[in-house]
Design a protein that fits this description.
Strand content of chain A: under 5%
Mean pLDDT of chain B: 92
Number of strands of chain B: 2
Oligomer: heterodimer
Shape of chain A: flat
Mean pLDDT of chain A: 82
Largest sheet of chain B: 2 strands, antiparallel
Number of domains of chain A: 1
Structural class of chain B: mainly alpha
Largest sheet of chain A: none
Structural class of chain A: mainly alpha
Helix content of chain B: over 70%
Strand order of the largest sheet of chain B: 1-2
C-alpha cells in the first residue's frame, strides 16, 4: 500500500467517512498532506535549536524525529485525534504540561 | 495623579452595570452602548502618561508629610520606596494597547447591535465588563489586582459564549470554566509564592527586591512561582495545552463576540508576558520556556487549522497560532524582538477581529459555518469577499499590510539574535497560514454554490461593512507607517531588557 493510500485511510478513520460512505475530497487529502509536511518540517527545524544546549542532544533529537517521520507517518490524523474537544483529553494534557513545565523549570534553571 | 487613568476602567464598568439595569429597554441599551463604546478608544488619547494611586497612597519617599510620622528604621529601609496601595501605570505602550482594544470593542459592539434585532443588555454587559477588566489588566502594577481582573475577563468570556446561542456553546463554556477552575488557582498559587518570598504584590517593588538582592533570586520558591505563572499565562492566552479549548470557545461564540474574545486573549498574552519578563527576565530558562510554548502553539494550531472544516474553528486555530509570534518576540528578549512582538499583538488583535466579523457575514446570511456545505458567496457579497480576502492577506503577512511589518521585524530580530531557525519556522508557518485561509476562502466564496445551501436575501448591515472598512484602513495605515505604533512600544521594550 502506498503512502498516499495509507494517509487517505487514516483520514477516513479520523473523519469517520466510512460510516457515511462519503468519498474523501481532494481538499481534505491535500490539507492533511500539507499539515503533515508542515508538522514534520517545523519540528525538524525546531529541534536543530537544541544545538544551543548540546550538539549531541540535537543529533539524537533530529535522528529521533526523522525515525518517527519514516516509521510512524502519517502523524496528523493521530494528532487530530489526540487534540479533540474531549474534556478528559484536555485535562490530561493540561496536567502533563504542568508536570513538564515545573520539572523542566527546576532542571533548566539550574543548568541553563 | 491623573484621574483619567482610572476612568478607562470605571467608565466601561459603569456602562456595563447600566446596560444590565436597562436590559429590557432596547433603545436605551443601544444608544448607551454605542456612545460609551465610542469613548473607549478616545479616552486614552487624551490621557497624559503617569501613575494613578488608588486611595492616594504614594510611597513614603514621595510624601514627606506622611514620612515624618514614621520611624527612621522604616524610612531608612527599602520600605521607604515601596508602594502602599494599588497603582495604575499609564505609558505609551499601555496607550496603544487600550486604543486598539477600544477600537475593536467599539466595532464589535456596533456590529453586534446592528446584526441582532433586539439588543441584549446582558450581552452588552459582558462585553463592557470584559473591556473594563482588560484595561485594568493592562494598566495595573499590582499583581493581585491583575489576577482579580484576569478572573473577571475569564468569567466575561464564559458569559459571552453562553449568551451567544450557538450550537454547543453551553458545553464549551462549561469545559472552559472547569479547565479555568484548575489552571487559574495555579496562577494564583504562583502569585502567592511570589508574595511569600518578596512580601509584596506591587510588581515594581517585587522587581526591586529581586534586583537589589533583598530576596534570593535563585530561591526554589521563586522558580516554582515562575513556572506556575508561565502555566497560568498559557491558560490565559490559549497556548498549548489550552489551544484546543481556546479555539473551541471562539468557534462557539457569535463572530462579533469571538472578535472581542480573541482580543482579550491577545492583550492578556502581552500583559502577562510583560509581567513575566519584568520579574523573571534574569532567569534565562524562562525565555526558553516562552519560546518553546510559542513554537508549540504555532506548529500545533496552524496544522490543526488545516485539518478543520468549520470556518470559525479554522480562524480560531489560526488566531491561537498567531499568538505564537507574539510569544517568540517576547522570548527572544531583545529590544527589537519585544517591540515586534508587541506590535504583532496589536496587529493580530485587529486582523483576527477583521476576519471574524468578515467571515461572520457568511454565517449571518446562511446560518452555516461548515465549509463543505458552503460555496458561491462571491456572487452574493463580492465587496465583502474582497474585504475578507484582504484580511486573510494581512494575517499571512503580505505587504503592504500591517502584519507584514511586524513579522518582518520578528524575523529580522531572530536573525540578529543568532537564532535563524525561528525565522525559518515563522516564514514557513506564515505560508501555511495563507494556505489555510485560502482553503476556507476558496470553499466559501469561489466554489460553485451547493444545491442545498439557502442564502438569505437580507442585506449585510451597514455597520458591519463600516467595521470591516475601518479594520482595513487600520491594517493599511499600520502597514505603511508602522512607526505610528512601534515608536510607542519601543520605550517599554527597552525597559524590559
Amino acid at each position: 500500500m502506498s503512502l498516499y493510500d495509507t494517509i487517505i485511510d487514516k483520514i477516513k478513520q479520523v473523519q469517520e467517512y466510512d460510516k457515511e460512505g462519503e468519498p474523501v475530497t481532494s481538499i481534505a487529502a491535500s490539507s492533511t498532506l500539507a499539515a503533515e509536511i508542515t508538522l514534520l518540517s517545523s519540528i525538524l527545524v525546531a529541534v536543530i535549536m537544541l544545538r544551543y544546549f548540546s550538539n549531541a542532544l540535537m543529533i539524537i533529537a533530529v535522528l529521533l524525529v526523522a525515525s518517527i517521520a519514516i516509521f510512524a507517518m502519517p502523524l496528523m490524523p493521530r494528532f487530530k485525534r489526540e487534540q479533540n474537544d474531549s474534556l478528559n483529553s484536555m485535562i490530561f494534557y493540561m496536567i502533563l504540561a504542568l508536570g513538564i513545565i515545573t520539572t523542566l523549570f527546576y532542571w533548566g534553571s539550574l543548568n541553563v | 495623579m491623573n484621574p483619567l487613568i482610572a476612568l478607562m476602567v470605571i467608565i466601561p464598568i459603569t456602562c456595563a452595570l447600566l446596560v444590565n439595569l436597562f436590559h429590557t429597554k432596547d433603545k436605551t441599551v443601544k444608544i448607551l452602548s454605542i456612545v460609551v463604546a465610542l469613548f473607549l478608544p478616545i479616552i486614552p488619547l487624551f490621557t497624559s502618561y503617569g501613575l494613578h494611586y488608588f486611595g492616594g497612597y504614594m510611597t513614603l519617599a514621595q510624601s514627606p508629610v506622611l514620612s515624618q510620622w514614621v520611624p527612621a528604621s522604616i524610612t531608612n529601609s527599602a520600605l521607604n520606596i515601596f508602594h502602599m496601595g494599588i497603582m495604575y501605570s499609564f505609558g505609551s505602550a499601555q496607550q496603544i494597547f487600550i486604543v486598539a482594544l477600544g477600537i475593536i470593542a467599539f466595532l464589535a459592539i456596533l456590529t453586534s447591535l446592528s446584526e441582532t434585532k433586539k439588543a441584549s443588555g446582558v450581552y452588552a454587559f459582558l462585553m463592557f465588563m470584559g473591556v473594563a477588566s482588560m484595561s485594568a489588566v493592562i494598566l495595573t502594577d499590582d499583581i493581585f489586582n491583575f489576577y482579580v481582573f484576569f478572573e473577571i475577563i475569564a468569567i466575561a468570556q464564559v458569559g459571552i459564549v453562553i449568551a451567544s446561542k450557538v450550537k454547543g456553546n453551553l458545553e464549551a463554556a462549561l469545559k472552559y470554566m472547569i479547565i479555568g477552575g484548575i489552571a487559574s488557582p495555579l496562577l494564583l498559587l504562583g502569585i502567592a509564592l511570589l508574595l511569600g518570598v518578596t512580601g509584596n504584590v506591587n510588581i515594581t517593588d517585587i522587581v526591586y527586591s529581586i534586583k537589589t538582592g533583598l530576596v534570593n533570586p535563585q530561591s526554589p520558591v521563586l522558580l516554582m512561582a515562575c513556572a506556575l505563572i508561565i502555566f497560568g499565562w498559557s491558560y490565559a492566552a490559549g497556548l498549548p495545552p489550552f489551544h484546543t479549548i481556546k479555539s473551541e470557545i471562539y468557534s462557539r461564540a457569535l463572530p462579533h463576540g469571538a472578535a472581542l474574545l480573541q482580543a482579550f486573549s491577545v492583550f492578556t498574552l502581552a500583559a502577562v508576558g510583560i509581567v513575566i519578563l519584568r520579574i523573571f527576565s534574569y532567569l534565562a530558562f524562562s525565555k526558553v520556556i516562552i519560546i518553546a510554548l510559542s513554537l508549540a502553539a504555532m506548529i500545533l494550531s496552524i496544522t490543526m487549522a488545516l485539518m478543520q472544516t468549520d470556518f470559525k474553528r479554522i480562524i480560531g486555530y489560526l488566531a491561537v497560532g498567531e499568538l505564537g509570534y507574539i510569544g517568540l518576540g517576547l522570548g527572544i528578549g531583545t529590544s527589537m524582538s519585544i517591540t515586534a512582538g508587541l506590535f504583532q499583538a496589536v496587529n493580530e488583535a485587529i486582523i483576527t477581529a477583521f476576519l471574524f466579523i468578515g467571515f461572520g457575514t457568511v454565517l449571518y446570511l446562511t446560518k452555516e459555518s461548515d465549509i463543505r456545505k458552503l460555496g458561491g458567496m462571491m456572487v452574493h457579497t463580492p465587496k465583502i469577499a474582497l474585504l475578507v480576502l484582504l484580511a486573510g492577506l494581512a494575517m499571512a503577512g503580505v505587504p503592504p499590510l500591517n502584519a507584514f511589518q511586524s513579522k518582518l521585524m520578528l524575523i529580522q530580530s531572530s536573525l540578529n539574535a543568532g537564532i535563524p531557525e525561528l525565522g525559518i519556522i515563522m516564514i514557513l508557518l506564515s505560508i501555511v497560514t495563507f494556505m489555510t485561509f485560502m482553503k476556507a476562502f476558496y470553499a466559501i466564496y469561489m466554489r460553485s454554490k451547493p444545491k442545498g445551501l439557502k442564502i438569505s436575501n437580507s442585506k449585510i448591515p451597514k455597520a458591519t461593512i463600516f467595521s470591516l472598512v475601518v479594520f482595513l484602513i487600520i491594517c493599511i495605515m499600520l502597514g505603511l507607517f508602522p512607526q505610528i505604533v512601534t515608536n510607542y512600544l519601543q520605550p517599554l521594550a527597552t525597559s524590559l531588557i
